[in-house]
Design goal:
With 310 residues, the protein is α+β, with helices and mostly antiparallel strands. The chain folds into two domains: 119 residues, no CATH class; 145 residues, no CATH class. 54% of the residues lie in helices and 7% in strands. A four-stranded mixed β-sheet has the order 1-4-2-3. A hairpin with a 4-residue loop joins strand 2 and strand 3. Helix 7 crosses helix 8 and helix 7 packs across helix 10. The N terminus is likely disordered.
Length: 310
């Protein structure tokens, strides 16, 4: 065998091992090669030139239970592709051992939108159980991770879980407590009833619609109230959302009046601990079947968080 034949065979073998993908290849060959890489993941990254059709194939066939897309980023990436400003930066598109896309949906969506090929490093064989640890240096939020996990109302649920951990922790007034995405997801799965929490999200959303308060802490408090009395917790939040309480000093009505007054005197802001404390005080009065006074609806930031009655 001649040296040129040996070199040719070696070159061919190397080409096969590398399993390259170019936008100029037939689409069927692009898909087949990508499938092979996903099925038999290499130990290092591959530089792949995604054609718009291959990007569309990935988004259609391999993009389930991912975090919500970011239209502004897609628009910017697409403009960069059209203007020839896209380059090989070292950022990677990632596929899991479950054959699903773990990172890169915005870039691939931009490829489809621009109708231009896009080149990127691609990593295969990611363990799906580690997705909550991906991109921890970037702005992947708890809501993103919950969305990837297929949890409804992902952002609201992540916020509610964070507040539940604070309110049931050693210091219920520690509003600055930090939890990793992994800790939040584990707490959601191990500590709380998902069906009850989703119900609490709905009750909090009803209050937000009419009273404009954040869903996360409201849902957390409804959840804790419902652990004492589900029916009364629902009635209290419904009365608050609807404003149907007739008595001037009814707990839900006076609660909302107090929060509006605080916001008006504080540049439309209410400290989280003050809001939570007043909601708890109003709830305690509600379950005790008593009215409240102005003195009842007071709370300084330095005061301890009141206990939940029920």
């Amino acid at each position: 065998m001649t040296n040129s034949n040996v070199a040719s065979i070696r070159a061919g073998t190397t080409e096969k091992v590398e399993r390259k993908i170019k936008a100029s290849m037939p689409l069927s060959e692009q898909i087949a090669t990508l499938s092979e890489l996903i099925t038999r993941p290499p130990t290092n990254s591959r530089v792949i030139e995604f054609s718009p059709k291959l990007a569309e194939h990935v988004l259609t066939k391999h993009n389930r239970d991912n975090r919500p897309m970011k239209p502004a980023k897609i628009k910017k990436y697409a403009a960069d592709l059209v203007e020839g400003l896209w380059g090989l930066t070292g950022d990677t598109i990632k596929f899991g051992t479950d054959a699903l896309l773990k990172d890169g949906q915005n870039r691939l969506s931009a490829c489809v939108r621009a109708g231009r090929p896009m080149t990127s490093h691609v990593v295969f064989g990611i363990d799906p159980q580690l997705f909550s640890r991906m991109d921890i240096g970037k702005n992947r939020t708890g809501g993103d991770v919950f969305a990837i996990a297929g949890i409804s109302y992902a952002g609201h649920v992540a916020a509610a879980v964070r507040w539940l951990l604070i309110l049931t922790g050693d210091d219920p007034a520690d509003r600055g407590a930090q939890f990793s995405n992994e800790e939040l997801l584990r707490a959601y799965r191990d500590k709380f009833d998902s069906d009850r929490l989703e119900h609490s999200i709905h009750c909090a959303l009803a209050v937000r619609k009419t009273c404009r308060h954040p869903v996360g802490p409201l849902a957390a408090l409804h959840y804790l109230f419902s652990q004492h009395d589900q029916r009364k917790a629902d009635e209290f939040f419904d009365e608050w959302a609807s404003g149907r309480a007739k008595r001037v000093r009814a707990p839900s009505r006076y609660l909302q009046k107090s929060l509006v007054e605080i916001a008006a005197s504080s540049n439309n802001r209410v400290h989280e601990n003050v809001r939570n404390a007043l909601i708890i005080k109003a709830w305690n009065a509600y379950v005790a079947k008593r009215t409240v006074s102005k003195a009842d609806m007071q709370h300084a930031i330095s005061d301890p968080m009141p206990k939940i009655a029920g």
